[in-house]
Amino acid sequence: MQWYFVAVLLTILTSSQGILTTLSQSNGKYLYDYATVPFLAEVFKLLLSTLLLWRECRISPSTRVTTEWKSVRLYVIPSIIYLIHNNVQFATLTYVDTSTYQIMGNLKIVTTAILFRLFLRRRLSNLQWMAIVLLAVGTTTSQVKGCGEASCDSLFAAPIQGYMLGVLSACLSALAGVYTEFLMKKNNDSLYWQNVQLYTFGSIFNMARLVLDDYRGGYENGSWWQRLFNGYSITTWMVVLNLGSTGLLVSWLMKYADNIVKVYSTSLAMLLTMVLSVYLFNLKPTLQLLLGTIICMMSLHMYFAPPNMLVDLPTQVRAAPESLKEVAVERRTDS
Amino acid sequence: MQWYFVAVLLTILTSSQGILTTLSQSNGKYLYDYATVPFLAEVFKLLLSTLLLWRECRISPSTRVTTEWKSVRLYVIPSIIYLIHNNVQFATLTYVDTSTYQIMGNLKIVTTAILFRLFLRRRLSNLQWMAIVLLAVGTTTSQVKGCGEASCDSLFAAPIQGYMLGVLSACLSALAGVYTEFLMKKNNDSLYWQNVQLYTFGSIFNMARLVLDDYRGGYENGSWWQRLFNGYSITTWMVVLNLGSTGLLVSWLMKYADNIVKVYSTSLAMLLTMVLSVYLFNLKPTLQLLLGTIICMMSLHMYFAPPNMLVDLPTQVRAAPESLKEVAVERRTDS
């Protein structure tokens, strides 16, 4: 399976995630407890991965499976990071409004690339760094509040703690992704075995979260397992399965591609959702959405296109002698 | 004189043009007839160029000066194009509002590059084409009307003729620039001699315009030469000299650099003016101004940086075998 097919599929499913979630509402409200969705998605991923692992072990006896606790215990770390991240997210939202929070969320594109370089030691060319910044700029541009919007709080008016927490949130998001990629690429274990470890801890943490919510709520709504499927429609199940599927695709990309591919997939998904919302939910098409889309497309091309396709300078060379050397060697293509 | 010094100077002077023009107003009104300013600027450029030509001929007897009418008559063409352009501009503004017009004005960045390629046969790499589009996107982004602006007409709501005229206006703007570059580079004539021809026709056309304005106004305000300097303050003279100076710099760039350099200078000047206006005129700093500035800076780097500085891929090569060939030849620089 080529990584770009998986990336495109992730883009489509991430986009449909937002749309399905909106469709699963009734009159703008959730008839079900939304907190149960991530838990069921983890369970779904765990069950499916277990099944696929079992099948793989039967077919191919040489399937690598590292079961030493020293290695297995590392798979709890992403769940811990996500836990801290969720709490930081919550704290940030006490200082800034949701649109400011959404705009700050674009920083995780840049923090992911920085940790990609620092932690995984993957080097990017200057052009690729510019592409990363442009991706963040492009997504932010599409989110700029236009003329005539109802509420108009200034982006720059929140307390400084809000911005600091926003940056921290972006760093934690990046850390979780980068650490997961580190785990998946650490050895040649079966992808499904790695998933099983990851999602076992994920399910435990999500379950603990539901238990904690019950405890804090004073068991008003009964225990979580009693109301687990309350208000679930077909659409809600689709939300669960969709969320689980995107998680599995991300896992695959972490092992066979990298975090930058994932970041591009999810960022373009955000744009795709906005474009589809113009047709599905009568969102007003804006100039900034068009501009943001153009910028992100450029960024995609700048990052992934082979260099010789970008900078093939035909016969007229304007710059320093070094580039003359390149022109002599590169295969000339007529533009 | 290196072209980048001239380009930076042009950026500064173009930016100060807008600021000086605003400063020359009294309570938002012009105490002088603004239509006299371009005319006096042409005369200033003509006088200065004549002086510099005379000086050059004295110092260097081998100064090339083509005086055949066959060649001289071509220098009227830019003035004709500008005349048509002004009329199209006027017609466009009967269909669209000024902010839509300003945004469509950014198209001339792209049309200039297209005519640069088609008419002057100057080839650009794919990356440079992307840089051009990003420059137009960046300037447009900075002009996106934000939340809380007073008037909120939709960008997409004008009649189709408005957009067609806007595109035509951008094409004419580009044609004028590209034809001027063609003239300046056609032969090795003295720059000042070429300027003298250009500005003689320019002065004549501007004078004709003033005469026509008088005629249409029924000579209510007397003849133009009677009210030429009415209401002129020091600041107004600075506006005239500034406008003349930018014209001379553009002329130099047309001969010793090219239209793309000029386009970058004037686009960045627009951003510089907006940034300065935040401090000078209390313009509200917006997210779109920040985003637009980042995009234009990236564009500048992408267009002008030597390719090997952009795509130096260090030891880990991700792409097709062709790039391996490049890495072997390129001078490795540590990022």
Helix-strand string of chain A: HHHHHHHHHHHHHH
The residue fraction in helices of chain A comes out at 55-70%
- The overall number of domains of chain A is 1
Radius of gyration of chain A: 22 Å
Task: Give me the oligomer status.
Answer: homodimer
The average pLDDT value of chain A, as a whole number, equals 88
Separation, N- and C-terminal Cα atoms of chain A: 32 Å
Structural class of chain A: mainly alpha
Return residue spans of chain A where pLDDT drops below 50 for at least 5 consecutive residues: 315-335
Question: Beta-strand percentage of chain A?
Answer: under 5%
Overall outline of chain A: globular
The beta-strand count of chain A equals 0
Biggest interface and its residues per chain?
A-B, 53 and 53 residues
Family (chains A, B): Belongs to the nucleotide-sugar transporter family. CMP-Sialate:CMP antiporter (TC 2.A.7.12) subfamily.
GO molecular function, one term (chains A, B): sialic acid transmembrane transporter activity
Main location (chains A, B): membrane
GO cellular component, one term (chains A, B): Golgi membrane
Short recap of the structure:
Chains A, B: Keywords: Membrane, Signal, Transmembrane, Transmembrane helix. The structure is a homodimer of 335-residue chains. Chain A is mainly α.
